[in-house]
Amino acid sequence: MAAVGRRFAWRRWLPLLVLALGSMAFFTAGLQEQFSLERIRQERETLLALVDRWPLLSVLAFAGIYMLMVALSVPIASLLSLLAGFLFGPLLGTLVAVIAATTGATLVFLAARTALGAGWRQRRAGIVHRLRAGFAANAFSYLLVLRLIPQVPFFAVNLAAAFLGVPLATYVCATLLGIVPAAAVIVGLGSSLGAVLDAGGAPDLAILWRLEVIGPLLGLAGLSLLPVLYKAWRGRQAQRQAER
Question: Would you kindly state where each structural domain of the chain is located, as residue ranges?
């Protein structure tokens, strides 16, 4: 049975391999050229007409494309968030972007976790286990911090969470909550994209690096670490009392 298990162990890599091949096919086919501000400028009237004629179908189709791009780790999420704001407005656009991004990221997480296998997740020795155990004790807080800071590579966090054995519910909740602030900023920019394009300009995504944006995000990240700091303080207090 063990030999049979090893023989078919490669199958657990299939989901991750499918996503990797899908990403390679996307770029090989040059499909990234279809996702640009210039393309949006050319097709803006058509896109708005489609949303006006089939609002629900447009939302579902857009969410599906956004989810697929995140799952394939194609780095166009910011552009799609801008487009969500342009097509659906700041509130609905943010909701669509956050749900689609979370769903796509969860697919990557599940594929990576399947590839690692149960044996990896249950490993009890070595530095890997110590790293995983330390992260798992405060998984929600740590993952929320990583999601709140948009400069942290999204794809890397997806894989790291699987590597460190984050529970699925914790992963989904922290991702969903953590990406809301940055998504709201970008979608908000997109809601005025029409005027920007009319003026011949481009939205300034560097706004995510400005102090008035990154400052509050870092503040939220700091607040997310308070439970970790409190737990560590309680642990030291308990240790001191035990030593007396």
Answer: 9-243
